[in-house]
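Dear support,

Our group has been running a series of protein-ligand predictions, and this particular one with zinc ion is the one our PI (initials K.S.) wants archived with full inputs and outputs. We had some confusion internally about which version of the output was final, so please treat the block below as the authoritative record. The input we submitted was:
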Amino acid sequence: MVTVTFLGTAGSTPTSSRALPALTVEYDGKLLLFDCGDGTQLHMIRRNVGLPKLSAVFLSHIHADHTAGMAGLVRSLALNKREAPLDIYIPESGRSGIHALLEYDRARFEYSINVKPIKGGTIYKGRGFEVSAFKVDHGDTPTYGFVFKEDDRWHFMAEKAASTGLKEGPLVGELLKKGSVKVNGRLVLREDVAEMRYGVKVVYVTDTRPTASTVAAARDADLLVHEATYANEEHDLAVKRKHSTAQEAAKSAQKAKVTMLALTHISARYGTRKDLMSLLREATSVFPNTIIAKDGMSIDITKDGMSIKMLKTNKVSDKL
Ligand SMILES: [Zn+2]
Ligand SMILES: [Zn+2]
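Confirmed final output from the archive:
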């Protein structure tokens, strides 16, 4: 199961209900953080999204609303005696900026921090999944979107294999790996007794005009998380400031044939329920299965479906 949690869904400035951008993807005990706005570590603690599980950080671009939280986060990890190395991915042009945040007070870290430039394509491989990056269009600021993809896997179908005499065991493992095995002198092909199960795909795109690269990367995704900084009436501003409207995000979702679209990077100007409903209507008129993300919203995703819950705020424990 893949769990996507929204820690911050504001755009540019926080509001009383929306923190600056940060999203986690949890899979098989590993936690990946995408963007790290000011206060992200606090929101992780409050929402019980375990900091110690943090494996890697992916920063879409250098703008402060997406990166400023790194300064505090790496120091808290050090104070909590982290030993495992931490990889931080950021566009090449943002490298010196992130180093400044990491080093400005000459803090000493007992764990190693590896800042790695994003070059596009697959940038991180974990057990059973990978993360890839693709270029988007945020004007002069190099910016990347990210794809989390669970590995596709062959699944043995015992009933299909009944006539071959092949049963669960090491031979099945060999068949799934190699593509064929001999059973009682007969060749059994993988595609005859197994089916491919496609892994969950989640795409995160923020601070960009709608792009063909987004549509290509999000093809058939289970969840597309896309920025929606503006409503239709501010379309000119979206073009000028290199952001997207909610409806443009919906058009990308429709073209990519994703299962669900979650809008994020919501401007402080859309603070009332009425404003948000209107933003949502503009999107759902194009792509009905759209939601507006909220801070603390957590989505469990498997190939059988999704379930959305709101995480309670943790007031009991101060432990990381
Ligand atoms: Zn932003
Ligand atoms: Zn930006």
